[in-house]
Structure of Diaminopimelate epimerase:
Amino acid sequence: MTWSFTKMQGLGNDFVVVSRSALPEDAPERARALCDRHFGVGADGLVFVLPSEKADVAMRIFNPDGTEAEQCGNAVRCVARYFFERISGEKRELTVETRAGLQRVGLEVSKGRVVAVCVDMGRPILKGREIPTAIDRERVVEEPLEVDGARFRFTAVSMGNPHAVVRVEDAPSFPVEKWGPRLETHPLFPRKTNVEFITVRSPREIDMRVWERGVGQTLACGSGACAAVVAAALAGKAEREATVHLLGGDLHIRWDEKSDHVFMTGPAEFVFEGKWPGPE
Ligand SMILES: N[C@H](CCC[C@H](N)C(=O)O)C(=O)O
């Protein structure tokens, strides 16, 4: 059966977006086929825009390897824009249901078009428990990890999906392709993990490269940028509000002290419309 889809991207983190009344059973196989950059359309994820009973719209996202991610910051921004411009342009404040919970989204609109999207990404979770007000830094921040003779320090931050944030000397030149997969599949992370390599340039500027679970290196990762600011702030290296420079562009992240929620602001763009005939 032919599928109509919309290609979207947020800072070069690109998605095949399809609107459906229910999640198809073969979503994982479809994700593997559609996301393939040589035999399919090519994308970092297959995103379903679905009706929701609890929110304005629901989103489910599958990685190119067919696994499902609980969360995807860049895709939430794309889904919010898709919903506003294609489904219902009534509200500039939306809620999006994800597997990580309900997310509140604010749209900046100019001439009927969404020019920026701010997402409340919720509370970061360290080691599977919510961060208490007084943080036990020694225990949860920059833990040592050894892999293939190399030593790293990582801070595990969940934004609904797992992240391991690693500070390195120079993120732009770091061999992400070499170490990303080894950390992604390290036995310390039973569900595997997304891995962010960061360099704090100044308390409000962070360079980041990312190796995503089930994907590989991508140009940007919204939940990863949130995790990076949380980890850098916990380590006392950055402020709670910072710009994260990614290969695909910049994200603005603010970890609100009062609510403990992380807010992410960035773009979401349409690329093209297509039809996919499906596998033979
Ligand atoms: N790129 C996404 C995250 C996808 C994470 C996915 N690869 C996982 O398995 O958790 C973002 O902008 O937040």
User: Anything to note?
Assistant: Helices lie at 27-35, 73-87, 137-140, 176-184, 222-234. Residues 73 and 222 are 4 Å apart (CA to CA). Residues 128-138 have pLDDT under 50 and may be disordered.
